[in-house]
Design brief:
This protein is mostly helical. The chain has 2 domains: 8-34 and 233-266; 69-230, f41 fragment of flagellin, N-terminal domain. It has helices at residues 8-33, 44-98, 105-125, 162-170, 173-176, 182-231, 235-262, 266-270; strands at residues 129-130, 133-134, 142-146, 154-158. The strands form 2 sheets. The protein has a two-stranded antiparallel ribbon. It has a two-stranded antiparallel ribbon with strand order 3-4. A hairpin with a 7-residue loop joins strand 3 and strand 4 (154-158). Helix 1 (8-33) runs antiparallel to helix 7 (235-262), helix 3 (105-125) packs antiparallel against helix 4 and helix 4 (162-170) packs antiparallel against helix 6. It is rod-shaped, with a radius of gyration of 39 Å.
Amino acid sequence: MISINTNTASSLAAYNVSGTNAQLQRSLQRLSSGSRINSSFDDAGGLAVSMKLSAAIRRTEATQANVNNSLSFLQTQDGVLKNADKILNRLSELAQLSADVTKSASDKALYQTEYDALTGALTQMATEQFNGNPLFAAGSSSLTVVTSQDGSQSFAITAADLGQIATNVATISANIATGASAADITGLMTHIQTLATDRARNGAQQSRVSFAADMLSINKVNLESANSRIADLDIAAESSNLARLNILHQAGTAMLAQANVSQQSVLKLLI
């Protein structure tokens, strides 16, 4: 049947060209953005998963920053403990020198002067802070470090009690002027051992924080890889698809023109 009012071939060709053009526009958008999913229409389920993975990646980055800050806290604490160890060693040396029976009262007074100055420095060290947070605290005070992006994993880092050590060694000061006793020297040795234990604990905690930071880095890479498989575009495949769509679009346009021209043949029947 030949009709004038309806050109089925033209309508079908126009429909195909319209569909090809829509796919061509989406392909151009993907190639220009580098993303396979640019709207929920592209892949509704994939978009939902990608959004959750992207949020997990951002939380992992934030957790990494927090863990690295905790490592800086511990490193700063250890730096102070290292200097405190030097002071305690000198205090024990002064105490031992004051016990020398050949030293005069004036000699011992000089030892006490230095001893008092060093205990003052030790007391000041006990008040050191890191970004407003005390490096040292009384008793078994601790800070909780979260080591996973979902908050399910954490551990505590100990704030060493340097203030108590400073207080205890200060009480020995009065004995230096008359000569430190064996008990005084033993007490200083005990504080040195306590400080050594604190530094060993600090080192162990630094090691644990470092491993936590490494694990977060690995988790971030894995999350990024998983998200990439869902959201990132395969440039090679999409370039081939673009070439195919260009050919289809050109061919469809040509056939649409041909369908429109073919309808003119009805004029020959009317002449």
